[in-house]
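Weekly structure sync, notes
Attendees: PL (lead), two postdocs, one rotation student
Agenda item 3: pending single-chain targets
PL asked that the sequence for the first pending target be pasted directly into the notes so everyone works from the same version. It is reproduced below exactly as submitted, 601 residues in total.
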Amino acid sequence: MTITTIRSIGYYAIIGGGIFLLSLIRYRKQNFMPSLNESTAVLGTRKAKHLLRRACFHYSKSTLNYFANLTPSQAINELSVQPTNFWLDPYDTTTNTQDGSNDGFWIHSGNPPSSYPYGQNKKRLIISGWWWYNMLKQNTLKHKLIWFLHTCFTVSKDGGAGKSAYFYDYLQLLDFYAYGSVKDLAKKITFDNAMLQYLDNTTNNKNNPNENYAREFLELFTILKGPQIAEGNYTNYTEFDIQQAAKVFSGIKVKADRDTFDQDTGIPCGYVNINQHDTGLKTFSSAFSNQTIQGGTSEAGVVDELSDFVEMIFSNDETAKSYCRKLYRFFVRREWTPDIENDIITPLSQQFINSGYNLLTVTQTLLKSQHFFDEDNSDSTDEIIGGMIKSPVQFLTEIVSFLDISVPNPEASSANPPATWSTDQLDFFHFYRKFCHDSFFPGTGMSIFSPDTVAGYPGDYQAPDFDRNWFSSNTIVARYKTMESFISGQNRVIGLLTNNNGNNYYQNIKVQFNSLSYISNNISDPFDSYGIVVKLMQLFFCETLDSNRINYFREILDDNNSGYWASAWADFQATGNDVQVKTRLDELFTKLINAAEFQLM
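Predicted structure, written out during the meeting:
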């Protein structure tokens, strides 16, 4: 076994030709003054890679080349433009009824969810595929912020969030507020049907209180726990405050037929059963200065009461800090020093407050900062760039977008529904369901939009490792089988299956990567093995690597720098026989994607 190090970020081992990340170490402490001052120099390739990976899910060579010539301000402004979905409406093409018909564009049919009793799990899957496809096709900060809000206000689409249409409405709500006020979202999410179902607030009545949602609203969604200073006292709130919050939330119910709409967003929402609402006065603890809130006696009054409660929570500076800490961990790194708390988190949270808790404004400030680009000390290669492990959704989407892997086109709209479903539309469902949703995501530790707990995904909340949790002995195999799957067009993540006749087979994933075409289209001199390797490493990895790593990958193409590769490519051009060059390119791409360096961003 050969063991070496990647800067001071981590260790990897070369075992039988595979690259395995063994462990990560903490960052070296540096003497520097963290700064939110704006970085103004043109990005260049290295910093453009850093920004695109952290701010987007989509990442392509053409996009990288374009953004490398922009300043951070120009780049962030472009990434902040409101995107337009390519695939407008999710649809279900599969048979769900006895007469063999399908439910098509069921969400926009005008029929209540109860009209579609079959295939709700599958429909939730389809909605997540609709979101993933649109995210895959766009260079935008918005999808990253939608995902961030999902980690802040968590529901599990397959873990009690109710009908598939409720999950769609939940995503629409996150989309509506991704560039808006988190405080406003905290009010609206309480009426979201998926949230009402998921955390049982629909069963919360004045005579039979259910504190589940109230507890999570304080502990996980907004102000968060502080140090426990007494029995039932978590500094930022107390158990008594949870009881009072449950009274505020009482009587807010799921509207099963989705015929009630929020007046600000136009999105279906829950309703108030005033007979089950606690209309009395609510008095909170000293954590909230013993504030009292008058109970509402009508639906409008309950909405006002909820607004007063959320305003009270957000008037505490600790709420803004809790979001800014999450934002820092999401976009920058898992840990920070007291200096960063004082010079980055605190001023960022004050800006958050001043902006009315606008998520886009504070995110733009962070992503334009010298600190984000690691420019606030003398060594810009030891801290932030390349200091996070990619989440599964980042890993998969980056591979597909950057390698320009052709995914079947599912685009369709309920405004102009197709007469019959195309092969591409059916193949996308197969690819997303069989490979992405049912194999890759669970295999890598992220059941997409279905975290195991209300706290979210381990990479987002599980201290002290956070993003390190994405790379473990339980998840490594699925990552390392991903490129093999794309090259073969077969589902190597779940491995061999057995049919009814007892024969083994690999599942066709309806998608395939052609390494030969990629090199032909993206490398100016395909005869040069050294140039191929260096160019691909520059594109795929955060940092430039030493000659030992370059030579390791070059050996895959060119045995002992013998000139074999140039001869093999010339033979391919002369004869059209691609076996030799494609076999070696397939191995090169597999090892580059499986390299420890590619796991980092």
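Discussion points:
- The longest strand covers residues 18-24.
- The radius of gyration is 26 Å.
Action: rotation student to compare against the earlier draft before next sync.
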